[in-house]
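Before going further, learn to read the protein records used in this course. The integers have meaning only within a learned vocabulary of local backbone shapes. The record below shows the convention in full.
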Amino acid sequence: MNKSVYINSIGSVSVQKTFDNSEFLNEITIYNDTVASVLNPDYKAYIPPAQARRMAKGIKMSTVSSQTALREAGLENVDAIIVGTGLGCIGDSVKFVRDIIDNDEQFLTPTRFIQSSHNTVSGQIALGIGCKGYNFTYVHAAVSFESSLIDAKMQLENDEAKNILVGGVDEMVKYHVDTHRLIGHIKSEPADSTKLLTSNTKGSVMGEGSHFFVLSNEKQESTYAELVGVETYNSISQENIPNKIESFLEEHHSAVDDLDLVILGNNGDVDFDGYYEGLSTGLFKDRPQAYYKHLSSEFDTASGFAFWLSAKILKMQTIPEVVKLNEIEVSNPLKILIYNQYRGENHSLMLLRKC
């Protein structure tokens, strides 16, 4: 018999001050740019300075967010570590290739090569806590985080594990920004984060972040919410999305009218926000709606921020004004649906409920 899957703790490093779990978007960082970097926590409180100097930014962010999640769940170790990332430690990859060119393929140190692989984050976390269990990294573009959730959910439902650390992380480096700016995926002009949806321009504001969660088949005092369902789709026509959503909800014994909040992944890209606008004025027109990429910015695992946001809303029973997309109020949010896509592909649905 399948068991329930609970979100027992969270840890986040993002463009906002989310590394402090005692707060919930109390202070909002407003930016007016085409890219947005994370607010760095005090890494010295989590990582010895000598080690931190050799760590890629993605590893440092993940160390903080994973340690925060483990500490809140009251755990020193877990049965499995599953990470989703679109780019891995791309900064060290770029540096290693540059070293090859600059040194004529000679006298290369292995450190940057070792730290440049996509599974470096999950490996470093495992080494840090001494976890010898299942360790896996999903590199599935904009559904990398959701792929990690699906894996963890199946293991927990079938009693293959009790506690699993699941995360999504992506770092931002100049090479990647320049490439995406060249192909028009990043806005050509700075966008005010408070007016992102009315920018009426192509591209998104690129960013970075790391979000980790302890999922378990046992509820505890720190539990935030229950993960009911996750589904990904590589390609769906805009006209067929409402049908897919209704089928997904029906599969999990829910309906649109049962949703207390819908969180959408609008990123201000005039070419692709129509996927969300069609739902806002159609299927979800009578449902409370929220968005988040004006706070998190856009990157492959940005949906981890939406997952963090949903878990906080369900536990604290409050929806911050800064994320509200319409004026429909809800005083007791019990069930939240997250819908995300990137440039018309890699669609995902995540359903959470209060427990």
